[in-house]
């Protein structure tokens, strides 16, 4: 089966993952995540710590007058650390600060038609169950606008030939009346 052109959202996700992996080589894991990280995710998957999970949380669509779409990608990187307190809390906060440093005002992850990181914030993900499991999670959230988001989506798609039939006979609308 032929694969469609990579979506711009997936290209962004991949570029973010590659950038964080390169900038934070001491992480034992750095992977993409579908949406927000929570206790269910921790219980479903074995996560090597210290680790980073990166996700696009939502992308409200903005329609432009020229028919294109911009997507303000609301993203998060979840710093996950396991171990005794207070060291794990301190390590999770330190990882979050490192992520923030990577999200410099000029960070575009090597992509075109993308805005700079904005609306940055850091917040702990608090849960009694995570605490009892010896896990601390701190989320770094930001928004980054992907401009002209759907450009090229159908670039590698096959051409569709439309064949009109009238009474079971091929009909060419440009040639005139039906046979």
* End-to-end separation: 39 Å
CA-atom Rg in angstroms:
23 Å
State the major sheet. Answer: 6 strands, mixed
Number of DSSP helical runs? 4
The best one-word shape is elongated
- Low-confidence runs (pLDDT<50, min 5 residues)? none
Mean of pLDDT? 87
Strand portion, in percent? Answer: 25-35%
Considering DSSP H and I runs of 4 or more, what fraction of the residues is helical?
10-25%
- Beta strands, count: 8
Strand-pairing-aware structural class:
alpha+beta
Write down the secondary-structure element order: HEHEEEHEHEEE
Polypeptide structure, described:
This protein is α+β, with helices and mostly antiparallel strands. The protein is built from four helices and eight strands, in the order αβαβββαβαβββ. β7 (164-166) and β8 (169-171) form a beta hairpin. The radius of gyration is 23 Å and the shape is elongated. The protein starts with 7 loop residues before the first helix and ends in an 8-residue tail after the last strand.
């Amino acid at each position: 089966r032929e694969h469609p052109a990579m979506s711009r959202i997936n290209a962004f996700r991949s570029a973010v993952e590659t950038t964080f992996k390169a900038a934070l080589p001491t992480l034992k894991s750095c992977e993409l995540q579908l949406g927000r990280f929570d206790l269910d995710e921790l219980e479903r998957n074995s996560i090597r710590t210290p680790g980073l999970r990166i996700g696009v949380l939502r992308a409200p669509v903005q329609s432009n007058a020229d028919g294109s779409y911009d997507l303000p990608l609301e993203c998060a990187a979840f710093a996950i650390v396991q171990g005794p307190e207070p060291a794990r809390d301190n390590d999770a906060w330190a990882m979050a600060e490192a992520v923030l440093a990577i999200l410099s005002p000029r960070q575009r992850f090597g992509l075109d038609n993308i805005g700079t990181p904005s609306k940055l914030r850091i917040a702990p993900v608090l849960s009694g169950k995570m605490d009892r499991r010896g896990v601390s999670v701190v989320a770094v959230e930001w928004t980054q606008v992907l401009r002209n988001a759907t450009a090229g989506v159908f670039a590698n798609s096959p051409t569709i030939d439309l064949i009109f039939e009238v009474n079971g006979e091929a009909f060419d609308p440009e040639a005139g009346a039906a046979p």
